[in-house]
Each structure stands twice: as structure tokens, then as C-alpha cells.
Automatic annotation (TrEMBL):
Highest taxon listed in the record's lineage: Bacteria
Keyword Ligase recorded: yes
Record-level Gene Ontology MF annotations: biotin--[biotin carboxyl-carrier protein] ligase activity
Ranges of residues in domain BPL/LPL catalytic: 40-216
Protein name according to UniProt: biotin--[biotin carboxyl-carrier protein] ligase
EC number: 6.3.4.15
Keywords: Biotin, Ligase
């Protein structure tokens, strides 16, 4: 009999003792409170994509602060229509609904929201899991596994009407033989002191609430609220020579030197030209000196 055949075996779909289920009622008691950002919280056993589901709810008038968590996503989506899948209860897969316009934040500043979610998630997980985390522009979260940077999380923001839905996917307890690609990672593989998803989710959502509150207080100004500086401080892309693979084809190569006021990555290309990149896949070409 293999471990996955045993009642508590790692491959067991609903009986994996290493991966206990999230308790919706407990999370609601801890996070949904009068005057707080989070107004409703639901945990579902499985869905295609929490972002897709919450976009639908947003169109139907769901309030700001709605949170949808899935124990398993069967069609999770990342940037550029990529998929994100993982074993049930092996990670945190959730989306949140925000309506920043209601607080007077200009629409041109909403592009900072996925970067805000990255800063909030990385900081919370560093503290709660005891693991050094880093940000890869624009929406990846990194940990170090066996001396190598590995992606363990990603963020997807979708604008729908006057709302923004932000999806977060984080590999928490994945083992090496469960990784979708060899270059992926997880908090467990990075040596986390805890892979209990309940306190980790609480920490991330509280951190998002704190950062979002400050960002709204300054009408989305990333410099005034400290977001731009904090993102740059935690961004592993800065200071490196990178290749930006642009949407629709084409690429730019240069040294990543800054995150500008619009959240764009500024590259110093050959000839001393500084060129901002607003979207694309970034490939780190050399380690930080």
C-alpha cells in the first residue's frame, strides 16, 4: 500500500491530515467585523477560478470586501491566460473584491493594486512563516529553495466596471514531486516554520487590509503611502539585467533600475536610454551583484 492509499496519506483527496481544511466560520469570526474591510467570506471546496466567480458576483453588486477562498481550483488563471493548478488544500487560492473608486481613488492609480497585494502578501508570509520572500515584477512571489529562486505565488487583478478583483495563488505545502514545473517552489520547500493555512490566510488578508487602507487614505498615491518604496525594497528584479518579453511580441533588454510612479518597471537599455515597461514577462538574466 502506498502512502496515498492510506487514510491520512499525502495523496488522499479529502483525508490528508497534513492539509486540514479551512474552517469558514472561524475565518469569518476573525476577519469580518464592523468597520473593517472584509464584509463577507466564503470557502468553497472546489471551483474553476475564484477570480471568475468573484467577477460575476461583482457584476451582480457584491460589496467591497467580499472574499472567496477555494480549497481547490480546477481552472485557476494567471497572467496571459496561463493556468494555475495544485493539489487540494496544498495552498491558498483566494480572490478579494475592491471598489477603490468609492474612496475617491482615481482610476489611473488602480494599476497599483496587484503590486499592493504582492507587498502585503510577501510581508505577511515572511513574518508568519519565517521565510524570506521577494517580489518579481510585476506579479510573482519568490522564495529560495536549495539556493535557487523559485516562484511560489502569483497575483492576477481584473477590472470589472467600478470594481477590481484580485486573485492570489500561493503554494504552501507542496512537496517536490507535486510541483507543476521544476522551477516552482513552496513555503514548505523553503523551510517555513509553519504551513498551517489558517493563520497564514489571516495574516495575508489583514496585511492587505492595512495596506489598502493606507493607499486609499492617500487617494492611491503610491509614494505618499509608502507603497512604491516598499515594493522597490522587496523587488528582486531591481538591480538585475533582465529581458522583458512584451505582449504581442518583441522584447527589451536592460538593467531594471526603478519602479516608477505608475508601477512600471524602468529599464536602462543600451545607449543610456531609460524605458518604462508596463506589461510583460520578465526573465532575470543574472543574479544581483
Amino acid at each position: 500500500m502506498t502512502p496515498s492509499d492510506t487514510p491520512g496519506g499525502r495523496g488522499g483527496r479529502w483525508s490528508d491530515l497534513e492539509r486540514p481544511p479551512l474552517v469558514e466560520a472561524a475565518l469569518r469570526r476573525a476577519l469580518v467585523r464592523p468597520g473593517g474591510l472584509w464584509t463577507e467570506l466564503d470557502v468553497v471546496q472546489a471551483t474553476g477560478s475564484t477570480n471568475t466567480d468573484l467577477v460575476t458576483r461583482a457584476a451582480a453588486g457584491a460589496p467591497e470586501g467580499a472574499v472567496l477562498v477555494a480549497e481547490e481550483q480546477t481552472a485557476g488563471r494567471g497572467r496571459l491566460d496561463r493556468t494555475w493548478t495544485a493539489p487540494p488544500r496544498s495552498g491558498l487560492f483566494f480572490s478579494v473584491l475592491l471598489r477603490p473608486g468609492a474612496a475617491g481613488v482615481p482610476g489611473e492609480r488602480w494599476g497599483w493594486l496587484p503590486l499592493l497585494a504582492g507587498v502585503a502578501s510577501a510581508g505577511a508570509l515572511s513574518r508568519a512563516a519565517g521565510v524570506d520572500t521577494a517580489l518579481k515584477w510585476p506579479n510573482d512571489l519568490l522564495v529560495t529553495v536549495e539556493g535557487q529562486e523559485r516562484k511560489f505565488g502569483g497575483i492576477l487583478a481584473e477590472r470589472t466596471g467600478d470594481a477590481v478583483v484580485i486573485g492570489v495563488g500561493l503554494n504552501i505545502s507542496l512537496h517536490a514531486d507535486e510541483l507543476p514545473v521544476p522551477t516552482a517552489g513552496s513555503l514548505a520547500l523553503a523551510g517555513a516554520v509553519s504551513t498551517d493555512r489558517d493563520p497564514l490566510l489571516r495574516a495575508v488578508l489583514r496585511s492587505i487590509e492595512e495596506w489598502y487602507g493606507e493607499w486609499r487614505r492617500f487617494e492611491g498615491d503610491p509614494g505618499a503611502c509608502g507603497l512604491q518604496e516598499t515594493y522597490a525594497a522587496g523587488c528582486a528584479t531591481l538591480g538585475r539585467r533582465v529581458r522583458a518579453e512584451l505582449p504581442g511580441g518583441g522584447e527589451r533588454v536592460g538593467e531594471a533600475v526603478a519602479i516608477d510612479g505608475d508601477g512600471r518597471l524602468v529599464l536602462a537599455t543600451e545607449g543610456g536610454v531609460q524605458e518604462p515597461v508596463s506589461a510583460g514577462d520578465i526573465v532575470h538574466l543574472r543574479a544581483v551583484s
